[in-house]
Amino acid sequence: MLGKKLVTAQKRGETRALCLGLGMVACSMMMYFFIGITIVPFYTKSVWTTETMCKVLKANIKDEALCPNREGSEDEDIFPYPCLQVWVNLTASGQEVMLYQTEDTLEKNPKCSYVPDKVENAKEVKARIETIASNFKKYQTFPCYYDPGGTQTNVILSRLYPPKGLLFTFLWPTLMFTGGCLIIVLVKISQYFSVLSAWQ
């Protein structure tokens, strides 16, 4: 009687462990799919792949610009902000080009090097942009990214999804997938030895 209870408890534990392993594998596959349709296209779409050094030539704050209205956005999404324009000397080619913060900055407003997020306090936005401009004037040389193919003549300060960031994004689903497969393998090994011992 006691042996039957132990066998039943063992089977229940194996079933739960197997369900846990399969659930982890399924969740990791869903995460892979989500990353593949959201982050990977932005990474492959970016042409600013080569890192070089940029030297600031001028960093000026122009008149206030309006955040352009994207498709589907409402009028309340448009807000004025000081337009910072940073021109740098590209070490790789020696050209004078305009610097943007990220790939997304160029899409939002190609006239400004920095586009702030919408905030209610306009003074904070102005102070932040003035601080960024002073930092560019203080640190004259810094690493930047350019397009080696020549499709884009401008440069960006940082990539939205660098290679290290993309690898880190794939780290967690990979760990979950490995853990799930390990649980399934251990359950199958346990079941194999149980059947083997019962047969003997």
TrEMBL record:
The keyword Transmembrane applies. InterPro entries: K_chnl_Ca-activ_BK_bsu (IPR003930). GO terms for cellular component: voltage-gated potassium channel complex. One of its GO terms (molecular function) is calcium-activated potassium channel activity. It is found in: Membrane. One of its GO terms (biological process) is detection of calcium ion. Belongs to the KCNMB (TC 8.A.14.1) family. KCNMB1 subfamily. The chain crosses the membrane at residues 20-43, 166-187. It comes from the Eukaryota. Keywords: Glycoprotein, Ion channel, Ion transport, Membrane, Transmembrane, Transmembrane helix, Transport. It comes from Chionis minor (Black-faced sheathbill). It is a multi-pass membrane protein. PANTHER family: CALCIUM-ACTIVATED POTASSIUM CHANNEL SUBUNIT BETA, CALCIUM-ACTIVATED POTASSIUM CHANNEL SUBUNIT BETA-1. This is KCMB1 protein. The keyword Glycoprotein applies.
